[in-house]
Amino acid sequence: MPPPPRLLVQPASTAAAASVRLPARRTTTIAPLPAHISQRLSLRPQRRHARVHDVRFVTTQQTSSAAITEKYRAKLQDKARAEGLESISELKEVYKEKISDVRRKAATIGPPIGAGGSKDAGTVTGTGLQHPPPPPPTPQPHQAQGKGSPTHKVPDTGIKPLSSYLDLEKIASLPAKEIELIWRLRHASDPNSLTAVIPLSTYNRMLASAQKHPQFILPLPRPASDDGSGDIQQAADGFAGKDVKRTTADVHFLQWAWHAPSVAPTPGQRTANTHTSTVIFTHLAAFKLHGEHAQPHTTITHHLDLADSHELVLLNGGVVNGRGVSAEEARWLLMCLQKFYDVEGHGGGMGKDKRQELMRKFSTGDTTFSLEELLDEAERVS
């Protein structure tokens, strides 16, 4: 049997890797979420559901029609007299069809727009989950900016291109090992940075899974509160270090998105660099409260500029200070990301059926989806 591929994100040292190992499963529990989130997820002792709904359906109690009428009674009476009517009831009857039409339109809620304001990140169905968007379209030829220029204009995605980090012309002739070293050194000074060099074959397997399951949740092991309540401890910058006893877990929501490549390929030329992909991680509680306006704590970007020449995909990203997750914990989430999205490559494919089934249940809103089973799989990170 061939050896398993490299991990997506390698900890800086063996000690760092050990610091995110979990305790025995018998002592690990899922920390309770806020009441309104728990209700939406239907967290019950024997059956757990983790179905993510469009947060705009989580609304506050609506003001009653009678209260509105009372508040604007004087204005409504003036309006009735102006229309030659004797009472507010007659006014309502006259405008009955218009009122019904307005209510019908107000009840029609469109699909949520992504964090960047783009509607092409996926379509939303009645389950509240986004289906994956179609594969990135083949870029159409664009007129070159200058005579003889091989570069074609592409839409501005707001994502820093790989060329802003590396001189692509200079590294084009370097072997893969040297590029990997340069890439890691380029970000070594930032303690919150996340970097990896991924074989193209590994990325393609992850991409295939992501197009089926663009959204998922992952549990993150955390230390329990010292007061014995079973709640998780909170810290502005998360927790790090091998001495942290992680006996509970909270849940994090992830979402993939696909964008145009930084440089459009030459028309007619076959290339693997058809897109740039991003993954954002958000506290599930924050996502349930704020939807697309929830602030992610971790964001990563996959650059495919070297996919054709070196069969490499360069990953970079970072953790935002003050949002409750440490860089060490974010690296653990990225290892879990690979574990679930590269089921064939991770661990030689062992346990792949279980992980695939968990993702299928989550994406389809299957009520048999189990947070305990998800936690068991996440604990097996090697």
Element order: H for helix, E for strand: HEHHHHHEEHHEHEEEHEHEHHH
Large-scale geometry: extended
- Unreliable stretches: 1-64, 107-153
Mean residue pLDDT: 73
| Main β-sheet description | 7 strands, mixed
Helix content: 25-40%
Distance between the termini: 18 Å
Strand content: 5-15%
Domain module count: 2
Describe, in plain words, how this protein is organized in 3D.
One of its GO terms (biological process) is mitochondrial proton-transporting ATP synthase complex assembly. InterPro entries: ATP11. The protein is an alpha+beta fold and 382 residues long. The protein folds into 2 domains: 14-54 and 167-379, no CATH class; 65-106, no CATH class. Helices cover 33% and strands 14% of the residues. The chain contains 14 helices and 9 strands. It has helices at residues 14-19, 35-41, 65-71, 73-82, 88-94, 96-107, 168-171, 176-186, 200-212, 284-290, 307-310, 327-341, 352-364, 371-379, and strands spanning 29-30, 123-124, 130-131, 193-199, 215-222, 248-259, 276-283, 298-303, 312-319. The strands form 2 sheets. Strands 1, 4, 5, 6, 7, 8 and 9 form a 7-stranded mixed β-sheet that branches. The chain is extended, with a radius of gyration of 25 Å.
How are the SSEs ordered, and which strands pair?
Elements: H1 14-19, E1 29-30, H2 35-41, H3 65-71, H4 73-82, H5 88-94, H6 96-107, E2 123-124, E3 130-131, H7 168-171, H8 176-186, E4 193-199, H9 200-212, E5 215-222, E6 248-259, E7 276-283, H10 284-290, E8 298-303, H11 307-310, E9 312-319, H12 327-341, H13 352-364, H14 371-379
